[in-house]
Amino acid sequence: MNRRPIPGASVGARIRGGRGVVRATLLGSLLLAVTACGGGGSDSGAASGGKDAEGAKNASPQAVVTIAPKDGADRVATTGALKVAAAKGKLTEVSVEDAKGHEVEGKITGGGTGWKPSVHLATHTRYTVRAVAKDAGGRSTTQKSSFTTLTPKATFTGNFTPEDGTKVGVGMPFSVNFTRGITHPEDVEKAITIKTEPAVEVRGHWFGNDRLDFRPEEYWKPGTKVSVTLNLDGVEGRPGVYGKQAKKVDFTIGRSQISTVDVKTQKMTVRRDGKVIKTIPVTTGKSGYDTWNGQMVITERLSVTRMNGETVGYGGEYDIKDVPHAMRLTTSGTFIHGNYWGGGTFGNYASSHGCVGLRDVKGGYDGSVSAAWFFNRSMVGDVVVVKHSHDKTVAPDNGLNGWNMSWKEWTA
Fold it and tell me: Which stretches are transmembrane (predicted)?
């Protein structure tokens, strides 16, 4: 029996079978329905706008970060070489670290267009730089680089006083003597920072080109804690000569003791925290060997020492091998010390070669005599003031005696 073709059905559809025809027809209807539902022209524009927003979001960042020196550079200068810049965007983050994770301080400048370090770099050190910048669309660009600083052929250090962890008198400055003459003093001074508690302004003063002292305007307040950072590693102190020292020094100011020697009366008045605790008869420099006037700081304490006139330009006038209870006041050789050979000079007349002598016994064994009493109650940094002498005021660099300069002179 012949079957009639289904109206509208193709031969191919008939060969695949009726179920296939139904499925194909249903699928086609669904697709048409979906197309019809999403068809309007305004909706097509919205779809296009979504693609544009997504494209803008995924576009490449426009900001460009440049780092100098270039990645892998060697023998880089410790100052002036490190720079970070941004174009078509602004820097948002810059970090520079050495191999130990110590970060180099710096600041972003020019509203985000640049960055520069606030301090110099250390010598023979590898640094890693990471910089991030954002463009106007908020997209970030990150750049990394690393380099190694130079290894100097010539170096310098600073020998300083007082030592770390010590307690000193109110007159003690922080003094640094450099092993090489400095021709870039501003760079060296900038590398030494001093913080105090309680806070007080501390300023430096150069004596020649190899010594730098720091002090406040007035004597330190008793109990002040002083913290010094010597960040000299990498500082070019003179052409081709770099510092190699990085050290922190902490010291504390003890009680106030200021002793005043009056040459007219040959007596010394000792004041502790402003109160007189003892008056001591002394003997000062005789005519032609007058004791310096001025404020002098005790810089060294010796239970016994040898004093030879030849070491201070007095030939063979004296050579005493066992001077007891000696404390240095000047580099040139002025001491306040025990004297067991002075007889009745103490409190009566001047008989020394410029030192301040106090009654003592040979061997310095008697703790009750004036020299022992004063020695046992003194510390490095205490102040001895001499007045009414016929000599001039001691030079501020003869010992640690910068207190003989006004604050205006000190800070000039």
Answer: none
8 Å CB contact between 160 and 230: yes
Q: Is 37 a catalytic residue?
A: no
* pTM, full prediction: 0.83
* Residue 314 confidence class, pLDDT cut points 50, 70, 90: confident
Q: pLDDT by residue (tens digit) across 185-204?
A: 999 999 999 999 999 999 99
End-to-end CA distance of the chain: give it in Å, rounded: 128
Altogether, the residues listed in the chain come to a count of 412
Rounded Cα distance, 139 and 151, in Å? 39
What sign for the dihedral angle of Cα 183, 186, 187, 188? positive
One domain for residues 261 and 245: no
- Per-residue pLDDT reduced to its tens digit, 57-71: 568 999 999 999 999
Strands 203-207 and 275-283: unpaired
Please check whether residue 27 lies inside any domain of the structure.
Answer: no
DSSP string computed for 98-133: ETT-PBPPEEEEGGGTEEEESSPPPSS-EEEEEEEE
Query: Cα–Cα distance between 288 and 122 in angstroms, integer?
Result: 53
Tens-place pLDDT, residues 91-139: 999 999 999 999 999 999 999 999 999 999 999 999 999 999 999 999 9
Structure tokens at 377: 């109650």
- Do 138 and 202 share a domain, yes or no? no
From the list 120, 205, 325, 355, the catalytic residue is: 355
- Total of domains in the chain: 3
Q: Tell me the torsion sign for CA atoms 10, 12, 17, 22.
A: negative
Domain that holds residue 187: 154-253
Domain boundary among 133, 149, 165: 149
DSSP 390: S
In eight-state DSSP terms, residue 223 is: T
Can you give the CATH number for the domain in which 103 is found? 2.60.40.3780
Sheet with 174-178, edge to edge strand ranges: 158-161, 174-178, 211-215, 203-207
Confirm whether 355 is a catalytic residue: yes
Strand-strand pairing, 225-231 and 246-253: antiparallel
- Which of 120, 205, 325, 337 is an active site residue? 337
